[in-house]
Automatic annotation (TrEMBL):
Domain of life: Eukaryota
Assigned keywords, A-Z: Chaperone, Membrane, Transmembrane, Transmembrane helix
Protein's recorded name: DnaJ like subfamily A member 2
Annotated GO MF terms: misfolded protein binding; protein-folding chaperone binding
Organism listed in the record: Fonticula alba (Slime mold)
Signal peptide: none
Keyword Chaperone: yes
SUPFAM superfamilies: Chaperone J-domain
Gene3D superfamilies: DnaJ domain
Record domain J: where: 34-96
Length: 416
């Protein structure tokens, strides 16, 4: 069988007008621009090269120039904005315009700026404090139950790392609140930020004193707990100024203030009892020392359940109250009860048994974070467009775009 004489050969032709039209205007609405071709730079061009190319192209195609082109100028401006933004450029290089559209679509979402490729980093940052805290509790249990004799400041090493991160974050928030150039500074309560920062510093000082005291120092327990008393005082002041700024009548501000300081009062009473018991001033049992914890948690958990049943629109549904108030309270009260019983010598519980509720809670937190991260990554991966390199590798052109199919009018000399 002879070849079809009408399509005997392909001839290479160049049509400058066709190629220029293709580079300037997409053939259809779904065709994407190549931002690098628009600016006439290579894909590995530096920021300085992109700036020079943008300046040259913008001057050439500015609408006020004789050679100006408004549509081309808009393309140049958009390409420059994308390529000069490191995050958007990286997304464009990997996923094209579809990746930019997905990124912009998540812009108003709390997790909008988290690309799927960076999700693992954020999960590690969330898990790091939890894992360090878990390591600290394990070291405490091993040191006490197995009489290792380790130095308590050394055991505190995981907490020193957490404290360092918290101090840096609180310092950053404080600087942001007092920065005159910050647009959000007006929305941040400066007294609350200052109170939080000093509370973090005082808590760090308390941990330092506690680790030194546990290591055998002879200082009184009152000095050890003094920073935490100051933290409670700051909490009272913060709630007082916040309630005073409310646009409520005075008779309504008093119950609001009392409700807000309820947990501060509980902590203050418990710390006073701990100091009196530890320094030998009082002979009360440890169960009596922790009685404010049992009383406050029991009362406010029952109150939360009652309010959720009576006014669910204002205080949340019963299921939400059980999840956010009842279950955490059960774990906290169980841990405190086991600790007080062991300190009173009623039961010979080891510290490992006492910390079982803590390990359960932290295990659940780690599990929830891992499940959440996996679900979020799967969701973002399903919505993330196919990488540009993979799409391009699947597009095998049947013919070179610079070749044109021509009709051959010469008669065929081939015969069957």
């Amino acid at each position: 069988m002879a070849a079809n004489p009408q399509y005997k050969s392909f001839q290479r032709e160049s049509d400058d007008s066709d190629t220029s039209a293709t580079s300037d205007t997409p053939l259809n609405a779904e065709e994407e621009y190549d931002y690098y071709e628009i600016l006439n730079v290579s894909r590995d061009a530096s920021e300085e090269e992109i700036k020079k190319a943008h300046r040259r192209m913008a001057l050439r195609y500015h609408p006020d120039k004789p050679t100006g082109d408004a549509d081309k100028f808009r393309q140049i401006q958009h390409a420059y904005e994308v390529l000069m933004n490191p995050t958007r450029r990286k997304l464009y290089d990997q996923y094209g315009e579809a990746g930019l559209k997905m990124y912009d679509g998540y812009g108003n979402h709390p997790l909008g700026n988290l690309a799927a490729e960076n999700l693992s980093l954020w999960v590690c940052l969330l898990l790091l404090p939890v894992l360090l805290l878990l390591l600290f509790f394990i070291l405490v249990v091993v040191n006490v139950d197995y009489a290792k004799g380790w130095s308590w400041p050394a055991i505190w090493t995981p907490l020193w790392v957490i404290n360092f991160i918290v101090v840096l974050l609180s310092l950053s928030v404080t600087v942001l609140a007092f920065s005159a150039a910050s647009e959000d500074s007006a929305e941040i309560s400066k007294p609350s930020v200052v109170s939080f920062f000093f509370s973090v510093i005082l808590t760090l000082i308390w941990q330092i004193l506690l680790s030194i005291k546990l290591n055998g120092h002879s200082m009184a327990w009152g000095y050890v707990w003094l920073p935490m008393f100051l933290v409670s005082l700051l909490s009272f002041c913060r709630h007082f100024f916040n309630v005073r700024s409310l646009d409520f009548p005075m008779r309504s501000k008093i119950p609001v203030f009392l409700f807000k300081i309820r947990w501060t009062v509980m902590r203050l009473l418990t710390m006073i009892f701990i100091v009196l018991k530890s320094d030998g001033v009082s002979s009360m049992s440890w169960r009596a020392v922790f009685s404010p914890v049992f009383a406050f948690y029991g009362f406010f958990v029952l109150l939360s359940l009652l309010l959720s049943c009576c006014i669910p629109k204002l205080f949340g549904s019963l299921g939400e109250t059980i999840l956010t108030d009842v279950l955490p309270s059960i774990f906290i009260v169980t841990f405190i009860a086991l600790l007080s019983v062991a300190l009173d010598g009623i039961r010979g519980y080891s510290l490992g048994v006492i910390f079982v509720p803590v390990f359960i809670v932290m295990g659940l937190v780690i599990l929830v974070l891992c499940i959440f991260a996996c679900l979020l990554k799967c969701m973002m991966d399903s919505e993330m467009p196919e990488p540009v390199s993979k799409r391009n590798s699947q597009k095998t052109p049947l013919v070179d775009i610079s070749r044109r199919l021509t009709y051959n009018t010469e008669p065929s000399s081939n015969k069957d």
